[in-house]
Amino acid sequence: MARVTISLDSDLAIEVMLLTGTRSPQDAVELVVRDYLAAGRRTEARTGDAADAHRVGEERRTPQEG
User: Fold this and answer.
1) For residue 17, is it within any domain?
2) How far, in Å, CA of 24 to CA of 44, rounded?
3) Contact 20, 31 (CB under 8 A)
4) Does a structural domain hold residue 15?
5) What is the pLDDT of residues 2-61, one digit of tens each?
């Protein structure tokens, strides 16, 4: 997998390290990004995607009374 280098404010990096409980800023940021992506996948799994639009887009017809 290719790697990239990103510059962050030191306060931001320290805060992320404290939240994740890691000693390396690189590991901390990687954990946060992986968690963010996993949360997006969980949301898609619950709500569906564009291919599932046909299920929620149509209103169900109710029989007319009378």
Assistant:
1) yes
2) 31
3) yes
4) yes
5) 888 889 899 999 999 999 999 999 999 999 999 898 887 766 666 666 666 666 555 666
DSSP-assigned states of every residue in the chain: ---------HHHHHHHHHHHT-S-HHHHHHHHHHHHHHHHHHHHHHH--GGGHHHHHSPPP-PPP-
Count of domains forming the chain: 1
What is the structure's pLDDT at 21? 94
Q: Which two tokens stand for residue 56?
A: 């929620």
* Residue 3, in any domain of the structure: no
Paired tokens of 38: 């996993």
Question: What residue numbers bound the domain in which 29 lies?
Answer: 10-47
